[in-house]
Each structure stands twice: as C-alpha cells, then as structure tokens.
Predict the structure.
Amino acid sequence: MAGMVPVILCGGGGTRLWPRSRRARPKPFLPLVGPDSLFDQALSRCSDAQRFAPPLIVTGASHLEYSRTELAMRLGATTIVEPQSRNTAAAVALAALRLPHDAVMLVCPSDHQIDDLPAFVDLAQQAATLASDGWLVCLGIEPHSPETRFGYIRRGPALGPGAFKVAEFIEKPDLAAAAAHLASGECSWNSGIFAFRAGDYLAELQRYRPAMAAAAKSAVAKGVEDADGRFFPDPAEFAAIEAESLDYAVLENTDRAAVIPASMGWSDLGNWFALHGARTRDQFGNSVRGPVEILDCRNVMVDTDGPRVSLIGLDDVIVVVDGDDIMITSAASAHDVAKFARVRNG
C-alpha cells in the first residue's frame, strides 16, 4: 500500500458548539469554516495520491450517512463502524488491525482546522519518515499563548532536524503553569495528530493495555464486512473495552514517543470563542453569519440560521441561533456551553 494511510476519526459530539453542533449531526459534519464540512476538509488535506493512500474512516453507526460524502467515495475511503464509542485508543486499534503491520498511519481528528495545507503535507511526510523508523510521532503545535484547554508536550533530545524525543506529556494546566510552559520554549500543544506504523502501535498497546489489545483483536476477528465494504467489529467483544484515549493508553507510557513542532495555522475549533478566532472578522473584530445587523460592537460573533439578529453596543459576546434555540454567552464563558448540550441531550 503506497503512501501513508490517513485514519480519520469521527467520534465525539462537539457539545461545546451547541446549539449548532448536536448529537444527531455533530461538529465534524458542519461547514463551520468555509463552505465544506470539517470532515470533508480533513479528507481534502489528505487527497494527494502521490503521498497518501485512500483514507480509512472510523465512525459510529449514527454518523454513517454523513461520513459517506461524495469526496470520501471519490478518494476510495473505507469505513470502520464502531458499535459504541470507546475513545481514541480503541478506535485507532481497530484501524491498525485492518491494515498491514508496516502501513504508516496518519491519525487525524475530523473536526480541526488547518489553514496552511502545504505545511501540513510536509509535516505529515516528515512524521511518516520518522514513524518508519519505529517512532510514535505527535505533531506538536507551536504555542502562542498560555492556553489551558490543551495538553502540552515537552521536548527532549533531538532525533534529527525538527524532531525530538518526547520528554514529558503534560496534562491540561492551570493558567500559571501554562504560562510557564510557554515561557520555557520547550513545549508544544498536543494537536491530536499522530503518525506510526500499525504494527508498532499494536505492539505498544499490547505492552501497556493488553486487555484492550486482546478485545480489539477479537472484535475485528469476529467482525463482518457488508456489501458496501464497511466493516463492523463484533459489538460484544468491543463492549468489553474500557474507554481510554490514545495518549493515556500508549503515548504517555511508551519510550518511543517523538514530537515534531508544527506551525500550520491549526485550531481545534474547540468552542465558540475558538471558532470566532478562526473566522474572518471586520476591523472591529466582529464575525457574522446570516441576517445580522451590528452597531458599535467589538469582538462579537453572531451565527444565525434564519431569524434576524440585531446587536447594539456590545463587546465580547457570542450569539448563536439554531432553529428554536438561542444561545448567548460572553466570550470568556464559551467553554461552559457544553453544559446546556448535555442537559438537552441534543
């Protein structure tokens, strides 16, 4: 199989972008930045057949309709359908078990934004080369602020130009610790984008999470493929897996973790404030979508799917209208929006 294999993960509900993102149609399948969905943008970044093999999509049954896009079919994508969500360690194990052991996997979230496509492709190629030598590689985003929403990766000894052994994975810090990590010049944000050979990942999973490795292997062995080529792991075997992230299960334990500091216009679009920062803004820092009127406002974001919204004399406010739901928050409280999504189960 020529080229690295993009493994596009379509899990999670995107609850921090409620009410636009909902359980039935979550964040990856919405056109939040530009005309295409974030999912299709993730596929497009990996569409160069000279560098990438056809993508492998890991998603849930409720999202099959949205993941079967025209672009996915044109790229020859294959799909693994998770019986239930068990976080990223298990999702990636399913993908690895369906690939040759020497295949280099490029694990990508389906709901991030990357502005600099050439930089992304070059960094992915650099990561794949390092992964071919047995390293489990993370793309670490060069931080520009003391961000508390991300985990950090501290760089260790150099492995070559622009690549380092990981010295430490750091949990999401408080503001003071984040400022210290930024000032050290030794840390990157953990982007959730990884490269490794399928066999290397499975070997490390077996070493540190043998029960998960065994259950995933059994779920794949007893799984079935339908007429459309979609693979369904065995539900009973998969249900035995304890949910855990790839970072916790493998990367924080292995001595083969590497990091490549990356600058590629990345954002996780993790809440409405982050999305506001990723959208085009006017000279006063305002971004609007839909029928909106603003007067004497600064750093406001308005996103409405129909009803006209008029704002006067407000700063640092976010307004989102989706059908009958209206959400209004200060920019500083955007991270609390998920609480409403959980209450409404939407």
